Amino acid sequence: MKPNVLLGMLLLALSAAASGSAHGKGCSPQGSWFGFHDWPGGDGLIYFISQVTGKDQSHGDTLVDSPGFDLTLGGMFLNAVNVSKARGVWERIGEQTFAQTSILFAVDADGNALYTGKLSSVGTFADDCDVKRITNGTYNFYWPWQNPFDPTADPFLGPIPARDHDAYRMHVELP
Hints:
The protein is mainly beta. It is 12% helix and 46% strand.
């Protein structure tokens, strides 16, 4: 092998190793997950499915689908007919810990926005990187004319604490 080719391959390998060590600490949240509540004294229930993406191990995007979400907010919005999937962002805040914030919005039959919901929480991985404990969750609900990321915006409902729960990484299973 020519020395220039060998040197180029060595530099490429060192560069990849360096970038991996800079961003590769701890578990990666990227992948597909399902959230599971094991209510005390009750049956366990799956209540969300999420997709976590990112260009590196430090931050990225989330998409969360919660088909059981009560879009009427306990009857406050009886005219709500649809709610978006929650979309948001995540960032690493520790070697095994991530913060995430997602928003969704609900509409009436004419497509008029009724409210925006914002969920923020923290996820910490177990040792095997396939289970993360979701804690410190809070829901806030804002009027459609409010910016949910404006620190001066007062939610009309919230903060409401979310129950701690586990999320499990999905895996391919061969038939």
